[in-house]
Amino acid sequence: MRNAILTVALCAAATAAMSQQMAGTEEDQSYAADLWAQMADLGLAGDTVIRSFPYEGVEPHGLMLETFYTSAMVRGHSGALVVKRNYGPEGVTSDEVLSDPDEHLGSITVMFQREDSYDPETNNWFWAKYLPDGTLDQNPAGMALAGLVGKGADAGCIACHQGAGGEDFLFTTDARLTVD
Fold first, then answer.
1. What whole-number distance in Å separates Cα of residue 171 and Cα of residue 117?
2. Per-domain residue ranges for the chain?
3. Between the CA of residue 72 and those of 39, 57, 77, 153, 159, what are the distances in Å?
4. How do beta strands 125-130 and 105-113 pair?
5. Cα gap 96→160, rounded to integer Å
């Protein structure tokens, strides 16, 4: 019985470690840097961003949001790109965000649809959460939030978004995103 309990505990620890290794690798961080650079070129990140009218959001994103849908080219692959700017704190109004968006920007969360072989189980989405300066946010364990964040876990990007309708991992729209 003791061996069985030890085996179960070891398997659980190995599974948890494996799910943590699915995201935040050096390659994920490098890819996220290239994605940020492309977003900056498109005016979706950085100092000269395109603005839109913020709308009311929900946690874990911001309480006010801006969302952009487009396509981008990263490392020779063109894919659908969803960029969500997350504003706060609780109680912030759209007028406050419009008057000083930099003051209220908490993070930028991104989904980029990579090549077909990246991860078919998640429709090949690459996930990233950036701080306003373009650095990657980290979870409490210090893992960079880029790549297959939350795959095989109880929390995180994929764990939440797998419940979106339409089997596309998108809560905000079921429209088919096309790539230029």
1. 23
2. 26-162
3. 8, 25, 8, 28, 25
4. antiparallel
5. 29
